[in-house]
Write a structure and sequence with these properties.
Elements lengths: L9 H4 L1 H14 L3 H30 L9 H8 L28
């Protein structure tokens, strides 16, 4: 592999990160440039999805008549998870359900 590889922001990234990139490139028989481009694509995919999900949730929450669960209601529901008395999500009348309102479980 060429030793003249330059990664934008390499100084800010740190030598340890570049060493890890070099080790991964050797282990996977990929170039450092390929791995860096793949990492950027993966980062963009994840963050674009996350931003879209947040915007959609805010849009649902901003609708007129949207209702929200109290923290106590959520805590009581979550406390049943993994137990023999696990409750169904309290969907009636809350933002995001298939009936127009619910809660999101990501």
């Amino acid at each position: 592999m060429s030793r003249d590889f330059s990664l934008p922001g390499a100084r800010a990234t740190g030598a340890g990160t570049l060493q890890r990139l070099e080790a991964l490139a050797r282990a996977t028989d990929r170039s450092r440039a390929w791995l860096a481009a793949h990492a950027v694509r993966t980062y963009l995919d994840l963050n674009e999805w996350q931003i879209q999900a947040v915007r959609a949730a805010v849009e649902r929450a901003d609708r007129r008549g949207t209702k929200f669960l109290s923290q106590e209601e959520v805590d009581a529901w979550l406390a049943t998870w993994g137990t023999s008395r696990e409750r169904k999500p309290p969907l009636r009348g809350f933002a995001g359900s298939t009936r127009r309102y619910s809660i999101s479980r990501l």
